[in-house]
Design a protein that fits this description.
This protein is mainly beta. The protein is built from 2 helices and 8 strands, in the order H-E-E-E-E-E-H-E-E-E.
Length: about 160
């Protein structure tokens, strides 16, 4: 679900100063979360207290864990990537949904996860998860939210 377009209008970028970890976890061909999407997790970061511009920050109840992703539309039609359908599980098996308002601040640039992705186009984005302090993501379930239950991808320890 796309959060209010008014928030996108602010043109806010994340206040996350650490560069993404150089890491690629590719979803194997045939294990794609949807017939039209391929998803790669390119980084995992935890311990982020807030995202957004000064005065409008989205504060985490615990900490934000951020998954840097590349999403490619391999279908024949423009499609929306349903970030709300994505889940992360911690090392205790607890599942967490995307923090949608934080996702707006992290993905409000040009071609992003908030827009339709054209056939053949690859976009970079960030999926933020509000997790308790000290929790660590162990895997992600990546899904198109409509036609598949998704695939589970093991995640490395965040930095």
């Amino acid at each position: 679900m796309i959060v209010s377009a008014g928030l996108v209008g602010f043109g806010a970028w994340a206040v996350v100063t650490t560069p993404p970890q150089v890491l690629t976890i590719a979803v194997a061909p045939g294990d794609s979360p949807a017939p039209g999407f391929d998803v790669e997790v390119t980084g995992v970061r935890c311990g982020v207290a807030s995202v957004g511009p000064d005065g409008m920050e989205q504060q985490a109840a615990g900490q934000f864990c951020l998954l840097d992703v590349e999403v490619t539309n391999n279908g024949a039609e423009p499609m929306l990537f349903d970030s709300a359908a994505q889940r992360v599980r911690d090392t205790d098996g607890e599942a967490y949904a995307v923090a949608e308002q934080a996702a707006v601040f992290l993905n409000d640039h040009g071609s992003s996860l908030l827009n339709e992705i054209e056939p053949g186009e690859t976009v970079d984005g960030v999926l933020p998860f509000d997790m308790p302090d000290g929790a660590r993501p162990s895997d992600a379930e990546l899904s198109d939210g409509l036609t598949t239950s998704g695939v589970r991808v093991n995640l490395p320890d965040p930095r």
